[in-house]
Write a structure and sequence with these properties.
Elements: H1 3-8, H2 11-15, H3 23-37, H4 46-62, H5 65-77, H6 96-100, H7 105-114, E1 135-141, H8 143-148, E2 150-161, E3 176-178, E4 187-192, E5 195-200, E6 209-211, E7 223-234, E8 243-246, E9 262-268, E10 275-277, E11 280-287, H9 289-294, E12 296-302, E13 305-311, E14 320-323, E15 337-343, H10 351-363, H11 370-379
Parallel strand pairs: 1-9, 11-15
Antiparallel strand pairs: 2-7, 3-6, 4-5, 8-9, 10-11, 12-13, 14-15
Amino acid sequence: MSAQDYVEKDYYAALGVAKTDDAATIKKAYRKLARENHPDANPNNAAAEARFKEVSEAYDVLSDTAKRQEYDEARSLFGGGGYRPSNAGRSSNIDFSDLFGTGSNVGDMFSDLFGPGAPGGRRASGPPPERGADLSADVQLGFEEAVHGATLPLKLSGPAACRTCGGSGAAPGSGVHTCPVCGGVGAVSRNQGGFAFREPCRECRGAGQIPDTICPECRGTGSTNQTRTITVRVPAGVRDGAKLRIAGKGSMGVRGGPAGDLFVTVRVAPHPLFGRSGDDLTLNVPVSFTEATLGTSLRVPTLDGAVTLKVAPGTPSGRTLRVRGRGVATAKKTGDLLVTVEVAVPTDLSDEERDALEKYQAVATQDPRPLITAALSRGGDHG
């Protein structure tokens, strides 16, 4: 929320409540207006959408005790909003931190709005530290590496603190001096409509200091492009597309700020035999017609050895059998191995095999299609 919003917008009027109303009354008013103006209830209605945003913004401030107090103090100070400096460009002795108390967010808010040296503004001793940017990278894992976990090196290229100057931007043995343009603040002010706004100083690039002698390695920037290797520990059971956050391994911070984070996306290669469904492993196993009919014991592989699986007589093609505890082990649980039995139909029969099957067919009494047969008998033959 900007300082200008605090000064100029009447959030109580937006919700139709009084300044003395309690939190329950404000909440009730907001819910009523939010339902009436919600975009889902008013499709393609720009006015309703704008009204919905207005009441949401008002409730965000008035429902928070600290924000509401700051808002009330700001509105009280400027007589209900609409502050306009009567002497633009003149300095003022008003110190908002004294009005609102040491460390008050409202004091900081007006200091940011008016800028250093502007009415109500406080001059900072220098630009604050900035956190470095986050980085992203991909790693490729084999199927079994993803199941069991792995530790692997990852090479990254990007800006890092200059090894010659240690990130100061000054040549070894040389110092730095305060920027004469911004006075060490790292920003300069410009006036617009009676307000002073700050922007980064071009002379020192926002650093607030200038090297006496520029480092020949980084040319005063304090950083160089470097290649570094970090160790990535991938937990057991990681899935394809998972993202791992490695704190502090992103880009270096600015002016002593902390480094960003590294986000690693895991890509898992397929396995020639096994598939995966959640924490379960899947495996398709072909069996012959006689094995499915008479029953058998199968020796099937897992990622940790082999197991014997009993196939009951009369097992249909497509039935899935479960082997507990032979799936993917994660920190929360261990999955199972799901074995799907598929009856393999022979395509090239010898004469003896064909004779045997024809003899079986001649004596077979069980109808494999009872529902189809019943439907045909009821409807007659229309062919």
